[in-house]
Amino acid sequence: MALLNLEFEFESENTQTINPEWFHMGVTGSGDMEVMFIKKDLGGKVEAKVCTPVVGFDAVWKSMLNKFVNDTGVGNIVIEINDDNATPIVVYMRLRQALAEATAKEEK
Amino acid sequence: MEFKKVTREWDTLKKDAMERAKNAAHLVKEGKIVDAKDTVALLEAVIKPFDKVNIEGNNQKQADFLAKCLCQVDPAKIHDLHMVQSVLTLPEHLDVFEKGIAKKLDMSFSGPQAGRIAQFLQEGKLELGAIHTYLELYGRYFLDLTPRVALVAATMADREGNLFTGFSTEDTPAIVEATKFRQGIVIAQVNKIVDKLPRVDIPADWVDYVIQSPKPFYIEPLFTRDPALITDAQVLKGMMAIKGIYGEYQVESMNHGIGFDTAAIELLLPTYGEELGLKGKICKNFILNPHPTLIPAIETGWVESVHCFGGELGMEDYVAARSDIFFVGPDGSMRSNRAFSQTAGHYAIDMFIGGTLQIDPYGNSSTATANRVAGFGGAPNMGCDPKGRRHSSGAWLKCGEEYALNSELWGPVRRGKRLVVQLAETFREKLAPGFVEELDAFKLAKNANLSIEPVMIYGDDLTHIITEEGIAYLPKCRNMAERTAAIRGIAGFTEVGMKADPKETKRLRELGIIKTPQDLGIDMSRANRSMLAAKNVHDLVEWSGGLYNPPAKFRNW
């Protein structure tokens, strides 16, 4: 099955990034996904790359990632997602969970 | 005025039944017992063309042997039967139409045969009366759809013909009572004929023939949900439900649907519910099959009572050992009864909560798909505001007080409202949307030529929708525009949700008509499977102290 590569860019008012240079979470499996955050100076912007087998959901990916960026106020970060049919809520929850862990390490 | 009295016989039904019994007399061995090999001959002797015939079978136990035998009668002798039965599950339930033995159908639910019903309707092999709720169909058994012949299933019979239906009593009393007391004929297949029954569930006077079937009746473990398959998204919705609805309204009595969403809620009571201090305040009285996932909540003292529609394979010993909670007979085994459970589900409970496949912008909710005539079983009966209710409770009154139209429609009278809650995922597996502009029910009504759209829960009865985006508190909406905005506001990235106006959604959040997980104070990163009181079926066995004995297909350890 051909995989689809999508790329998005979001403006962000905040610049909350992660503490480590990169952070990885999850496994690409049925109905689930893996995510990687990479710290990068983008002048506050957020870059997102999605690799997915699902065709026709570009607009949903864009809206969902935009919501994540707005809700959390992340910036200066590259988000890479390898997806295997995760539903939007699963994607959103995994991103929130990954960000919580990536920023929790900062407090140590 | 002169009255003209009719001249007629007043006991033709009884005479006809005696006539039929005479035709079958040579097949009876002793008492009421007929050999399994003579079953087809028995059916040909006692059934006549155009009879209303019931084959017992709900979504659990099935009079499967009798169903199979009915397919083998000679269509030249027996044809144009009118089947009146709650569920069509087995292929034989449709084969009788294929073979020209039956013509008309009145039913409630048809899970696996739903596609064939739609096909037969189009091909003219089947005439559909109506798709009822269970209670509605049982009601019509006592009105205009009384079976002439009922083919029922029992666990055991004694030599006189008394029946023991026990744990799996389900629909048998309702069917037999309607049939027998209108001079009909009752044929029972039983797993075993014994000298002495544990207890009598159906007296022998009400039964005409008893057949020991070659194999025990088929029963489906339909209400067993493996906790290992509950997802994080379901945990999130469960936490939202417990905090935003169960706790908010202090809901004490309820029915839970069959899906994983409500299984998650059952398994969150001992953990998240406990943490919120809700024990003793919510979830006391259930109308529910013996769900294995309820075991942890029972064992931690949440639950006061459970009445069951039917049994559930493997729960027999656990239920028998908890007679303070379940309805257990003098013999020590539970008696289920779908008609009484549905009555309680309609009138007595404060909340119905379950999953659905599609919700439209008006709040109509349905599991109907375009090419399957499936029906909804008991869901519409419980998932509605019962207008005949005349007792009050805290949750019911609070929901009525919040109803924005109460003074406009009710005047000064204090009334309440049933909580009818739908759990929906904005996208399900394979990214099927949970919110649509037009329900598939409309296409089905067209395809199957139905007079009304098969809607499971009508929009005006629906009070709350829970998605991972938030809870919509629909009774607080003042009009349809506001209601639609509230639904769009929690519909995520579906076609319905994409049309949400962010400003209006924000306003509804300020009014408390929409509450997001954040508004409810729920930390999304905590929403994962570690919150569940049992992570798999083995954990449930442990919780039960070894009393729960899961069917083989759920044993993976």
What does this structure look like?
The complex is a heterodimer of chains A (108) and B (557). Chain A is of the alpha+beta class and 108 residues long. In chain A, 30% of the residues lie in helices and 32% in strands. Chain A has a single domain, classed as Ribosomal Protein S5, domain 2 (2-Layer Sandwich), CATH 3.30.230. Chain A contains two helices and five strands, in the order E-E-E-E-H-E-H. Chain A has a five-stranded mixed beta sheet with strand order 1-4-5-3-2, with helices on one face. Chain B has 557 residues and is of the alpha/beta class. Chain B folds into two domains: 14-212, Glutaconate Coenzyme A-transferase (3-Layer(aba) Sandwich), CATH 3.40.1080.10; 227-538, 3-Layer(aba) Sandwich (Glutaconate Coenzyme A-transferase). In chain B, the strands form three sheets. In chain B, strands 1, 2, 3, 4, 5, 6, 7, 8 and 9 form a nine-stranded mixed beta sheet that branches. In chain B, strands 12-11-10-13-16-17-18-19 form an eight-stranded mixed beta sheet, with helices on both faces. In chain B, strands 14-15 form a two-stranded antiparallel ribbon. In chain B, helix 17 packs across helix 19. The longest helix of chain B is centred in the middle third of the chain and has 18 residues, at 232-249. Chains A and B meet through helix 1 and helix 2 of A and helix 8 of B.
